Structure to design on (360 residues):
């Protein structure tokens, strides 16, 4: 069931659109992530849903409640929208204890005292901070403050949770734990959650679906698997994970594969795209992930006789669990992984046609 519908959402500042024609639907209990580079319009979209900012056009509907409709002037104020919000800077009130921080939004909503206490206890239990309720924010670690901010967002039982880069202030280790914890909390509460991040690991590991944004537009919406494995454009491919691109000239289109030729004469077979995706002729761009490369050797003798490419190694970086080798192929630099450091000048590697796809 659709819990949140965003239609043709546009916000302009002066003549410039911060977001333009954004469309998506989140189903009940879904964890949907808005992912994209700085300035692409993630916070603007979230603020429009929370009611903190008035969009220029479009519609926002939660369940059967219209939050905003640009065509008839509907605009529900933020306090009537029942959205739990956590911002990047999770600004707790420093002069209030944890308990008081959670109590404040309940007082605003005129919840009776006994009910307030019950809900605060419940929320603090959920975030495992029930023993620290009398502490002030300055007496808590960053991760604990983060959890208080989340508890404050869920304490008044919102129908939608809006989280804008809630883990960005945490260091790598705490962030990893916080991510795990957030996922468990989402499963337990089943709240429809809209999550904003520019961190691909967070997006891939937490989300049911990801909406990738670029320059105010939603450019792809899909499951983490779809976004990672079938990026619609080179921008999306590059933004998520490590990506390799090779440019070539269209040669022929067969039943299963398309053949392109690189400028240096090497040829490459690419699996025919599924569905009715149209393949152009002329200059084409092929994309593959380093982990799809089957073998990296120092000679051309692999068991394969197609898609064995050759290139000069220009850099080797040690990543702890593997080596990343940068190889110059034609006019591109591709990155490959290897368990052992390469003690040779030229690498030969095999990319199966099924691991290659054309991108625009
Ligand atoms: N009040 C404003 N006046 C003019 N332009 C604004 C205003 N607020 C935001 N913008 C512009 O709108 C665009 C989208 O901003 P937004 O804050 O939504 O980006 P974001 O994706 O959240 O980025 P970040 O990852 O850096 O937080 C940016 O180009 C920004 O400069
Ligand atoms: Mg932002």
């Amino acid at each position: 069931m659709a819990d949140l519908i965003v239609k043709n959402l546009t916000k302009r500042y002066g003549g410039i659109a911060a977001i333009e024609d954004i469309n998506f639907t989140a189903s009940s209990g879904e964890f949907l992530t808005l992912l994209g580079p700085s300035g692409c319009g993630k916070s603007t979209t979230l603020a429009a849903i929370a009611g903190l900012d008035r969009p220029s056009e479009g519609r926002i509907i939660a369940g059967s409640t219209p939050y905003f409709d640009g065509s008839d002037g509907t605009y529900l104020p933020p306090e009537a929208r029942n959205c739990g919000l956590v911002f990047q800077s999770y600004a707790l009130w420093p002069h209030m204890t944890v308990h008081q921080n959670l109590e404040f939004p309940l007082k605003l909503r005129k919840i009776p005292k006994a009910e307030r206490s019950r809900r605060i206890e419940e929320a603090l239990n959920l975030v495992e901070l029930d023993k620290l309720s009398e502490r002030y924010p300055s007496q808590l670690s960053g991760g604990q403050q983060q959890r208080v901010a989340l508890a404050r967002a869920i304490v008044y039982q919102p129908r939608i949770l809006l989280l804008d880069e809630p883990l960005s202030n945490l260091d790598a280790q705490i962030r990893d734990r916080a991510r795990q914890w957030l996922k468990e909390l989402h499963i337990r509460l089943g709240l429809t959650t809209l999550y904003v991040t520019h961190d691909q690991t967070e997006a891939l590991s937490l989300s049911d679906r990801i909406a990738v944004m670029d320059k105010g537009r939603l450019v792809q919406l899909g499951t983490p698997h779809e976004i990672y494995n079938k990026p619609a454009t080179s921008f999306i491919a590059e933004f998520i994970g490590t990506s390799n691109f090779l440019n070539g000239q269209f040669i022929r289109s067969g039943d299963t594969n398309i053949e392109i030729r690189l400028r240096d004469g090497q040829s490459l077979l690419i699996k025919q795209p599924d569905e009715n995706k149209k393949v152009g002729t002329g200059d084409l761009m092929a994309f593959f992930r380093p982990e799809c490369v089957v073998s990296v050797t120092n000679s051309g003798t692999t068991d394969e006789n197609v898609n064995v490419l050759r290139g000069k190694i220009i850099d080797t970086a040690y990543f702890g669990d593997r080596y990343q080798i940068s190889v110059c192929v034609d006019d591109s630099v591709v990155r490959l992984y290897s368990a052992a450091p390469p003690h040779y000048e030229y690498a030969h590697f095999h990319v199966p046609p099924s691991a290659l796809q054309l991108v625009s």
User: Anything to note?
Assistant: The longest strand covers residues 2-13.
